[in-house]
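Case study B.
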Amino acid sequence: MSGPEVLAAQADVLRTRVGACWPGTRAVFRGQDLHRDLDGSSSMDLFLFGITGRRFAPNELRLLDGMWALTGYPDTRLWNNRVAALAANARSLPSLGLAAGIAASDARVFGGGPAFFSIDFFLRAGEQRRAGAEVEAIVAAELLANRRILGYGRPMNSTDERLPPLLALAGREGLADGLHFRLAFDVEAALLRRKPFLKLNYAGATAALAADLGLTSRQYQVYNVFKTMLGMPPCLVEAAEKPEGTLMPMPCENVTYEGPARRSWVDRGAARHP
Amino acid sequence: MSTPQRLHTRIWHEEPEPDNAFAARTALCHGYDVYGDMLGRVRWTEMLFLLFSGEAPWPEQTELLETLAVALANPGPRDQAVQAAMASGTGGAPSAATLMAALSVGAGRHGGARDVFEAMTGWVECGMELAAWQARLAGAAPQRLEIWPAAERAAGFDPHGRRTPGIVLQALERLAAHAPAQRLRWLAEHREALEAAAGLPLAMSSVAAAAFADLGFSPEQGEMLHLLLRLPGAAAHALEQRALGYKRFPFPPVELQDDPARQAVAA
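Model:
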């Protein structure tokens, strides 16, 4: 089947395996009755079941829960938190502020980008390690192909304060001995021999742990959407309590203008630009 | 006293009121006095061009952007981005939620802004060289890993099309008639060869990409403008469905393929 027939076959009906609800009767969540079979499930349990279609053990869920909690930083200056807070201070809605803040977390320099590329690296490196490759060779090949390995180094401070509590959590839950998590430290050692600031960071460590839990890079991308979300509600709530429009106000003189000098619209066109 | 936090911009310059540093007396856009000189003389598309390019457009550029803006204004209620806006609106969600829905869906590779970005990257890399385009469309270049879902076909083509839709041909013809539209004319001239290379008919996103490139915009600017210019239709349809109410909005039957109730009966 190809062309418009593909569309015609899906018109007027929703075919699905993930679930449905019949108001007044029941709801099905990935093949199980939500209120009977999944009664008592935690949000994280259902979240991971929803993403992957498989159930995770209690210690795995506690680790995944803790990986969010350890980076829930209510610092309104952080770009994603700032988005949520500005929405509240501009007297918009919490839903809009949080949705935009979460979307802003899918960034190149923090949040979604490094997380995705990091787990992709660990999954590939893990395969190579299982096939017998040396860590040094894996790192050298990766640097040659992609110039850098995301999950190492940090723009503001190369020491990541979240790692000790994360290591403690993973150890407490018996999940600190997986191939990818151990590999993360071996890769760090290889990188530190090249650049002393390329220490393992939180994005790298959590990606390695997620790889050990069997998440694919696309599954981890969904899990990771909310990783920095817990810092947002406090920022948003406080910003809503402040007088409207007073969050990070900017006087005119703080905007450094670096564009063309004043010119006349009426007299424009002396020279034709490309 | 803390250090002033400086924001740097080449776009906007405000002079404060003498007694209030937080209120603007004048505002310049790339050097032009917006409220003192431009307002009343400038069309919306001229302002748009100025904001993105930093220079005032020539009349023929304004005409091309204006025509493109009309072509993109409403993808129609069957478009997935507009459907998302309507689904948000029919439940009575805030107006911003309907536009966020349209943006989120319209950002994607399926005829959305990412499709335009990729097609514009093609113009950067291939120019008007047919052989380069044919190699690109045939998928010769390896895909780079990115956070976006992997491309499933050549950007700018309709994965479920049978022939180039009439509205795409009409838009291409009208846009190609504008003076700066050299890529659009090349696209019209080589459309069949490009479609053969892609194995699919041309989509509206290809036309938009060529037009943005002809206007001198980068792929990033084209992506942003595509998101922006398709919002009017999404907004209007969302408002219409909000007024009509959810009882008149499609809610198809579901075919649940692993229903535990059915499995219990079967057992």
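Residues 19-55 of chain A form one domain. The remaining cases will be described in the next quarterly update.
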